[in-house]
Amino acid sequence: MTTRYPLYGGLLSFVGFAFMLLVSAMALRADPLGERLERQLPILMERHGVAGVNAVILREGREVWAGTFGMSDPEAGIAMTRVSVFRVESISKPVTAWGVMRLVEGGAVALDDVVWDHVTSWAPPPGTPDMTIRQLLSNSAGLGIGDFTARHPPGAAPALRQAMEGDFAVIGAPGAGFHYSNTGFNLLEVLIEDVSGQDFGDFMNEMVLAKLGAGQASFDWSAALAERMPVGHGLQAQRIAPHVYPAGASGGLLADIDAIARFVRAGMHAPHRAAEVGLPDALLALMHAAQVPVGGVYGVVTDGYGLGHFTETLSDGRKAVWHGGQGHGWMSHFHLVPESGDAIILLTNSQRAWPLFATVLREWSNALGVAPVGMARVAHLWALGLALTLGLALGAAAQALRLIIGWRRGRRRWQRPTLARNVLALGGAGLIAIVAWAARQEYLITDSVLPGLSQWLGLAIAAAGLMVLLSAFFAPHHA
Q1: Which of 99, 180, 428, 478 could disulfide-link 469, Cβ–Cβ 3.0 to 4.6 Å?
Q2: Alpha carbons 34 and 175: distance in angstroms, whole number
């Protein structure tokens, strides 16, 4: 009798544990939104040429669905895995903001301190105005975006302070408005090092990343992380060689989806983040509160910017925060409703994923019972881009046919230039010039909004411009 009961007790414990695992697995598979995404994501990936996707949905702070799709390396036939490590690009910014807030929490700096009072290892150009830590965190310090094309083979990047010498540019008055800036966050990297006396990557690992618990993340490139990284794919679906940036704060974080999910969960209101080692509620509230309204291109998809986070008000009045990341060969995104603990995280090894993200975010919004979040509008832009491309192409083809028929029948001849014809010709030439200029740019935002379509749109615009130019001087001739 003394040996049977422990045996039965152990057996019952094992069965109970197995039953709990089974119930959890069934709950993950039964999530209605997850079931829809299981069907839709492969279709969207095929449509937009996206190589691989990792996705997680959180509800009340708990993971209710996760999916891994596509390929880590299509050429080698290597499938994506949940432990794949991604370049999360500008999701590095909210993570860096947490590092700065750790300094604020410890009293080493205050948000409204002038940054030059703490940065001692690098001097800005003469005449640079005072700017505060809050303004840097909220992208309102008046700094330019910086050279986001500066990529280097691992181990060959210049030192951050050296890179800052040629990258630092003031384009507006500090505090006057929103200017999205990699340079501003790179300056915060210098601030963290000068105040803490530590290497940026070491400080971030100790004070932010290690406290999240699960997942793999680092601001430092390493062979161990590189082994788990998928192959990145560019706007033309081409393979992208491994690369690093001179700075980490604005876009250098390497992480798997579990690490990003833990970070997102740590930004939720209690009790949804009960298991996390996060920031005090007051500092989280500061980070998530809009510091500056956002206009221009960014204003199409968001309301404002907090401290390292885009902000928006949902249709039911709740507040959401989010950030995305885009780099050469990679895209990432998270959206979070701190109050309810709802969140979605998307990581891809493709730079063609914005329309896919937009469609998924629309589905996620529907599941929350709110109007589509701002980033979902990108899907409408892709549809409009397709309609515009087809309309211009058909219009150019129809006009070309009219010109050819007119020439063959002698109804169209070279006409003497007039002011009206010169203006029309100038318009056509202008369209062609715009397309020629765009073709010489390394990156345009339309390439990301309309992946696989922007080149066709450019050709359609050029064709329309050519038809306008020819029509200006080969007008109908009446005998």
Answers
A1: 428
A2: 42
Helix, strand counts (H, E) of the chain: 16, 14
The conformational region for residue 336 under phi > 0 = left, psi -120 to 50 = alpha, else beta, is beta
Per-residue pLDDT at 259: 95
Residue-wise pLDDT for 303-341, tens only, equals 999 999 999 999 999 999 999 999 999 999 999 999 999
441 HSE (CA, 13 A, CB side): 15
Encoded tokens for 250: 């604005």
On whether the CB atoms of residues 161 and 200 are closer than 8 A, the answer is no
Packing angle, helices 454-473 and 419-439, rounded to 10: 160
Q: Where are the domains of the chain?
A: 52-372, 381-473
Locate 143 and state its tokens: 């700094």
* pLDDT digit string, tens, across residues 88-115: 999 999 999 999 999 999 999 999 999 9
Mean pLDDT over 71-77 rounds to: 96
* pLDDT tops 90 at residue 408: no
What percent of the chain is predicted at pLDDT more than 90? 67
Q: What are phi and psi of 464, to 5 degrees?
A: -65, -40
- Decide: 297 and 287 in contact? Cβ < 8 Å: no
pLDDT confidence tier of residue 2, bands split at 50, 70 and 90: very low
Tokens representing residue 282 in the block: 């007051």
Residue 418 identity (one-letter amino acid): T
Tell how far CA 122 is from the center of its chain: 29
C-alpha to C-alpha distances, 323 to 11, 140, 282, 420, nearest whole angstrom: 47, 16, 20, 48
Q: How many CB atoms lie within 10 A of CB 283?
A: 17
Q: Buried b / exposed e across 28-54, counting CB within 10 Å, b at 16+?
A: eeebebbebbeeebeebbeebbbbbbb
Q: Are 247 and 327 in contact (CB under 8 A)?
A: no
52-372 maps to CATH 1.10.3720.10: no
**112 closest CA partner among 92, 130, 86:** 130
Q: How far apart are CA 270 and CA 27, in angstroms?
A: 23
